[in-house]
Specification:
Radius of gyration: 13 Å
Shape: globular
Helix content: 25-40%
Order of helices and strands: HEEHHEE
Largest sheet: 2 strands, antiparallel
Strand order of the largest sheet: 1-2
Number of strands: 4
Structural class: alpha+beta
Strand content: 25-35%
């Protein structure tokens, strides 16, 4: 099972606008996961979902880094601002 195969069930979650897994050019084993959600409660629900637990567990197993960082950015208040940071160790 690859990480990309885990994204389809997440993309079908309530409120998911988009969910992408991207490699960082020039940085070996460095990736960015971008999710766009309709509402803050949709994002919160996702962060506590089984789909997210499986994805984050898989990322930890495949990574030399054991710390994953997740940030919520919002455009609701005008310019994009960081509103919350969650870390999963």
């Amino acid at each position: 099972m690859t990480i990309t195969s885990l994204l389809d069930p997440i993309r079908r979650e309530l409120g998911c606008r988009s969910y992408r897994f991207l490699g960082v050019t020039g940085e070996k084993d460095s990736f960015v996961l971008i999710g766009e959600w309709e509402t803050l409660s949709d994002w919160d629900r996702h962060m506590h979902s089984e789909h997210f637990a499986v994805l984050s567990g898989s990322l930890k197993l495949l990574s030399a880094e054991k710390k994953l960082e997740f940030k919520l950015l919002s455009t609701f208040d005008g310019p994009v601002t960081e509103r919350r940071t969650n870390e999963h160790n």
